[in-house]
Amino acid sequence: MSEIDYINGLNLGIGFNSASLNTHPVPALEEVLNTRPVVNAGGQEVTFRVEVASNSLDLAKQLDVSGRVSLRFGAFGSGSAKSQFFESVKQNSFSLYVFVQVVVTNKQELLDLTTSRLKDEAATLFANSQGDFIQQYGDSFVYGLITGGEFIGILELETNSAEELRQAKASIGGKATFGFFGGNASGAFSESLTKITSSYAMKAFVFRQGATGAMAGVSPNELIIEALNFPAKVNGPDGFLYRALIIPYNHIPHPTASPLDTANQLSTLERLGSLRQRIVKYQNDIDFALANISMFEGLDVRAANERSNGLSRELEEIMNYARRCFNNSQDCSTPDIDLTLFENIIPNQSSTTAFKNMISGKVDKYYWQTPHPFFTGDPTGEREDIIRVDFPSGSFASPPTVEAMISALDNEHTANLRVRLIPENVSVNGFDLKVAIWGDSRLYGIAVTWFAY
To answer: Is 133 buried (19+), middle (13-18) or exposed (0-12) by CB count in 10 A?
Structure first.
């Protein structure tokens, strides 16, 4: 028995090809109207998940979107809602992806197979022509349906250099706990995401199977809120049909014959799907490099465009073979691929970020008011003040380096001059400038010039 993402038309008893993912509306079974309850399946089960992926293939694997699933969508523009969403997010090797997943399971509805059997015509076909049986009915059927819902959010962080990508991985890895959170641990889940989204500028893509459907273009903060509120939106009668349980026909009485075999179709489609994923990934990398030439010193633009065109031709050949294999389990083979097209022509990403994103500013503050510790009272130990500096929106994609220097100072001339400037809590949104003095120093006012790059 296997569990798959729901595809339109998957009703109880409907035939299904586990290799090609095709549905077969004409059922091979009789007596498929009876269902049975699932023991101890009451209530709602919720799982929160936060993880990091450094490339599209990792992300596909973690979200359980196989090359074969993506291949079907590429061939016919159809498939599960999740596969359609995944194809819409153009991924590359130079970005970091944080994904959020909330899975809600309410209940299962299963067929009562105690009286189910093959129709006479289906049993005859099973015994005499298994290839024709698979074409007509598939090799499996829908045994159960699962309601609830699934929420997926992908946060994409584009980096400007190889060093910035390395630092982002290290920083995010230290800020959040990745893995599974129980249904009562939404606080830890929210805290993990808040730490990430407060430090980096990210694009957010959201898929919602349940509630009000798919979304796109929300902010990271809205993503967190939506994820936390999602279980309540798909509870009980509001649950959404989002998964299906599939079992082979050999689980019911059948004629004595060899087991239905879709192994060649399955392996061929997996190979074709894997090749397609590699080509799409490399084309996305080329597109990213062409759109950000300053990050890839020595990139041959003409060669990159020619390589992308060559990959497109190979991709179309793969899709032609895939369509034939999806439609006919007896017509499955793989084309000869020009493997030289996968040889890398993209120079290494710059090791450091050029100062193309640099901004500066000036802040000042005066301390004549009483009883401010910079000005009045008996000086004891270190005293400090925090000046908040906000960057213009969209200035940086990751936390910049900040330098600060004194540009003007008003100090008590009878006391020692002691001042320390410390930029703290630096994020893409701004930073806190700590001004500190100690001993008998008295500060009446200060002006500071800062640079962020």
So the answer is: buried
Q: Return phi, psi of residue 350, to 5°.
A: -50, 140
The span from the CA of 206 to the CA of 201, in Å, is: 16
The DSSP output letter for 19 is: T
What digits encode the pLDDT tens for the residues 38-53?
655 556 788 877 777 7
Contact 272, 334 (CB under 8 A): yes
- CATH 2.60.40.2080 in the chain, residues? 359-452
| 3-class state of residue 289 by DSSP | helix
Task: List beta partners, residue 358.
Answer: none
DSSP three-state, residue 134? helix
For residue 188, what pLDDT is reported?
A: 62
Decide: helix, strand or coil at residue 53.
Answer: strand
421: which strand partners?
A: 435
**Count of alpha carbons within 13 Å of 444, Cβ hemisphere only?**
8
Considering the entire predicted model, what is its pTM?
A: 0.69
Q: Given 3.40.50.720, 2.60.40.2080, 3.10.450.750, 3.90.79.10, which CATH number is that of 359-452?
A: 2.60.40.2080
CA distances, 85 to each of 60, 70, 73, 124 (Å): 11, 10, 10, 41
The pLDDT confidence band at residue 287, using thresholds 50, 70 and 90, is very high
CB 115 within 8 A of CB 34: yes
**DSSP H or E segment with residue 186:** helix 186-197
In terms of pLDDT, which residue wins out, 212 or 63?
A: 63
Residue 384 identity: E
Three-class DSSP category at 181: strand
Whole-Å CA distances, 209 to 16, 50, 76, 83, 100: 22, 18, 21, 12, 14
Cβ atoms 365, 449 nearer than 8 A: no
Q: What is the rounded distance in angstroms from the CA atom of residue 139 to the CA atom of residue 122?
A: 12
Nearest to 374 by CA among 386, 362, 363: 386
* Neighbouring C-beta atoms of residue 263, cutoff 10 Å: 10
Cβ atoms 67, 274 nearer than 8 A: yes
Please tell me the distance from the alpha carbon of residue 71 to that of residue 20, in angstroms, as a whole number: 10
CA distance 368 to 137: 86
CB 433 within 8 A of CB 420: no
The DSSP call for residue 259 is P
Query: At residue 123, what are phi and psi to the nearest 5 degrees?
Result: -65, -40
User: For residue range 203-260, what is the model confidence (pLDDT) as tens digits?
Assistant: 778 888 876 555 555 666 777 778 888 888 888 777 788 889 999 988 888 887 777 8
pLDDT of 189 > 70? The answer is no
